[in-house]
Specification:
- This protein has 340 residues and is α+β, with helices and mostly antiparallel strands.
- It has 2 domains: 173 residues, HIT-like (HIT family, subunit A); 161 residues, 2-Layer Sandwich (HIT family, subunit A), CATH 3.30.428.10.
- It is 29% helix and 22% strand.
- The chain has 8 helices and 14 strands.
- The strands form 2 sheets. It has a 10-stranded antiparallel sheet. Strands 2-1-6-5 form a 4-stranded antiparallel sheet, with no helix packed on it.
- α2 crosses α5 and α3 packs across α6.
- The N and C termini lie far apart (48 Å).
- It binds zinc ion (3 copies).
- The site of one zinc ion (ZN) has 5 residues, from loops.
Length: 340
């Protein structure tokens, strides 16, 4: 069974997951010759665990063809939901929880070779609807503190199957990166009564140097201190802390802007492997009203796209400082000029 251990020195969580050793190695599974056996293709529903959510034609039975998006538990989960959340250790030095949580796969399309940026707007919207439904479902569980949606596209980005899919992990703790974002936003809000990201965006829009595109209330932005070359954020212009509060009209706008960003990145960088990460608010359902209001007003959700062109090496691991050879202003200019 996996275990969540807290690193008291570096103040972050790690998942020790011996079961993940059984997982097929990325390099073999992504091999073209195995595509006939792809468990995510339509018609191969029996090769995955039973679905937890799907969008398909009305009257369709679960785990049969006729779906547009399908969500299934990960066959090799980092965390499991069929156990009770328990503390395994608790002392000054050693804190750990059993591996309670949810780990699911969103099969974004029934079509094998159909990347996100080639899809129709309503097909991208289907994916957002599925993500949204699952976030809402996980946040009904009071033991869940944070949900992370992420996608690994391309071998070098960590994909173990080439069929387009993303993953969603619901955790009983708030991980380090979103926690830091929430903490700094909170501190800024307490002092200034404004959202930090809203204020940053205001200045960014005025200067325009790092803005790639601004459309329908969404912005494609290369952040000032981008950690990676062409690190790209998609962010709503109006303040909103929680992605799952979006409605269909906003999903449509979001689908246009995401497609726009990915087309630009793909065209300019010639189909790089990339990761996609959604940073939304933590589970607000079970915290006190005062704290909930602060998070609602201070945190600003966003989607981060990271092209995997550089590899973290000794310096990055040793310092936490990434060396980014491409200034975000230059990246923004290159992406702005891409003709779609
Ligand atoms: Zn497939
Ligand atoms: Zn904001
Ligand atoms: Zn973020």
């Amino acid at each position: 069974m996996s275990e969540l251990r807290f690193d008291q020195i570096r103040k972050r969580w790690v998942i020790i997951a011996p079961e993940r050793r059984k997982r097929p190695f990325a390099i073999c599974r992504i091999d073209e010759s195995e595509e006939g056996e792809c468990p995510f293709c339509e018609g191969k529903e029996n090769l995955t665990p039973p679905e937890t959510f799907a969008i398909g034609f009305s009257g369709r039975k679960p785990d049969t063809p006729g779906w547009r998006v399908r969500v299934v538990p990960n066959k090799f989960p980092a965390l499991k939901s069929d156990i009770n959340l328990t503390k395994l250790h608790e002392s000054d030095y050693f804190l750990s929880l059993n591996g309670f949580g949810y780990h699911e796969v969103i099969i974004e399309t029934p079509v094998h070779n159909y990347p996100l940026w080639e899809r129709k707007i309503d097909e991208i919207m289907d994916m957002f609807v599925a993500i949204n439904e699952r976030i809402k479902f996980f946040y009904k569980d009071r033991k869940i503190k944070y949900v992370l949606l992420f996608g690994n596209y391309g071998k070098a980005a960590g994909a173990s199957l080439s069929h387009p899919h993303s993953q969603i992990v619901a955790l009983p703790t708030i991980p380090e990166i979103p926690k830091n974002e929430m903490d700094s936003s909170r501190k800024y809000y307490i002092k200034n009564k404004r959202c930090l990201i809203c204020n940053i965006l205001k200045e960014e829009i005025e200067s325009g140097a790092r803005i790639v595109e601004r459309r329908n209330g969404f912005i494609i932005w290369e952040p000032f201190a981008s950690s990676f070359p062409f690190e790209t954020w998609i962010i709503p212009e109006n303040h909103e802390c929680d992605f799952s509060n979006l409605n269909n009209i906003e999903f449509e706008k979001m689908a246009f802007i995401l497609k726009d960003a990915l087309l630009r990145i793909n065209k300019f960088l010639k189909s790089p492997p990339f990761n996609l990460v959604l940073h939304t608010s933590c589970n607000l359902n079970y915290i006190n009203k005062k704290e909930r209001d602060i998070i609602k007003k201070s945190y600003h959700w966003h989607l981060e796209i990271i092209s995997r062109m550089t590899q973290a090496a000794g310096f990055e691991w040793g310092t936490g400082i990434n060396i980014n050879p491409i200034p975000p202003e230059e990246a923004a200019e290159c992406l702005r000029e891409v003709k779609l």
